[in-house]
Amino acid sequence: VQREEKQLEASLDALLSQVADLKNSLGSFIYKLENEYDRLTWPSVLDSFALLSGQLNTLNKVLKHEKTPLFRNQVIIPLVLSPDRDEDLMRQTEGRVPVFSHEVVPDHLRTKPDPEVEEQEKQLTTDAARIGADAAQKQIQSLNKMCSNLLEKISKEERESESGGLRPNKQTFNPTDTNALVAAVAFGKGLSNWRPSGSSGPGQPGQPGAGTILAGTSGLQQVQMAGAPSQQQPMLSGVQMAPTGQPGKIPSGIKTNIKSASMHPYQR
Length: 268
Fold this sequence. Notes:
Mean pLDDT: 76
CATH topology of the domain at 1-74: Methane Monooxygenase Hydroxylase, Chain G, domain 1
CATH architecture of the domain at 1-74: Up-down Bundle
Number of strands: 0
Radius of gyration: 50 Å
Helix content: 40-55%
Shape: elongated
Order of helices and strands: HHHHHHHH
Structural class: mainly alpha
CATH class of the domain at 1-74: Mainly Alpha
Largest sheet: none
Strand content: under 5%
Number of helices: 8
Low-confidence stretches: 201-243
């Protein structure tokens, strides 16, 4: 019996120590939120949450330890009940419980939760019982797989960002080729006048080139009617324009098909 009592006292001391640390951290975080919200940064908030999460995990480990007895099996019996104010109780409870009377004992010593909380717990237990063991195991495996993939992607992004920051950016172009391309476009440097042997120039016979077309086009003349020196005679469709008798002009073999854009004033 003495061994169990000592083990219970040691477990209670460890539990009280963890709860006190958690209480101090939570109070400090609440104070920052209420009084230092204008200077509060997001990394400091995350650090506070990480600290609280770590302390809660430590508290759960203490409760689940094999040497920790089950506190739910322990029965607490109040030895003294008094309606008078107790200063020692005020000091131990930090002013939260001034008296230990018949009115406050059921609230502070009860082991069952509120009826609303108990009803919600029953509902959650019922919903969990509806899922079969195989379905629950599949859901757990699927969730673990998703979490593993997400963590792997995050780790990969962190490694790539760190490696990219350490090594310089790799050059993706050749400066020599770039300079040669700019010189060729701007100054024609490095370009050759080579022409395929099968292509015929504009002056070769049987191949009407650009020179012939330009010469024939420039040979178009304006023919004026007699008695109307200021009016231009309309071009007749299908008439071959051959500028004969002009030195330096090559007769063009192009037939023109030009129609007047407006009605001629002398047309009847």
